Amino acid sequence: MSDDDLVIICGPGHSLWNKEKIPIHELAGNAFIIRESGSGTRDIFERLMSEAGANWKIGGVYNNTEAIKQAVRGNLGLAVVPKIAVKEEIERGLVRVIEVVGLDLKREFNLVYHRQKFFTSAIQTFIRICMNFTPAAL
């Protein structure tokens, strides 16, 4: 089991670019670049925004993180992405993380496997790597 931090990002020129921390109501009315239906990231985001009563618009629907990052850099909207996926863009100043007070964007990953099956050494190595993986270590 491992936690994955999700973050809200914006591109240069967005009205939130100079803000580090905002209340959730400041997200209202903003366009968001979101994942396709059925995506865990999208499900978490939509549920939390609904629970908070924050209205938002769809600025685009993309099926991969790289396309979402490019859309955000082009100021097509905000996005929710795994923090680990935008580490380099944050360091290079291409996108900025906006912390939203009271919005906890986390998800949990689990590795599911049958303990009584025979595992090749490759599968055993894979399981060991997964069990030791933590995004914070990267």
Brief digest:
The protein has 138 residues and is of the alpha/beta class.
Describe the structure.
The protein is an alpha/beta fold and 138 residues long. The protein is 28% helix and 28% strand. The chain has helices spanning 40-52, 65-73, 87-91, 121-132; strands spanning 2-10, 21-23, 31-35, 57-62, 78-82, 96-101, 106-109. Strands 1, 2, 3, 4, 5, 6 and 7 form a seven-stranded mixed beta sheet that branches. It starts with a strand and ends in a 6-residue tail after the last helix.
Spell out the blueprint of helices and strands.
Layout: E1 2-10, E2 21-23, E3 31-35, H1 40-52, E4 57-62, H2 65-73, E5 78-82, H3 87-91, E6 96-101, E7 106-109, H4 121-132
Parallel strand pairs: 2-6, 3-4, 3-5
Antiparallel strand pairs: 1-5, 1-6, 1-7
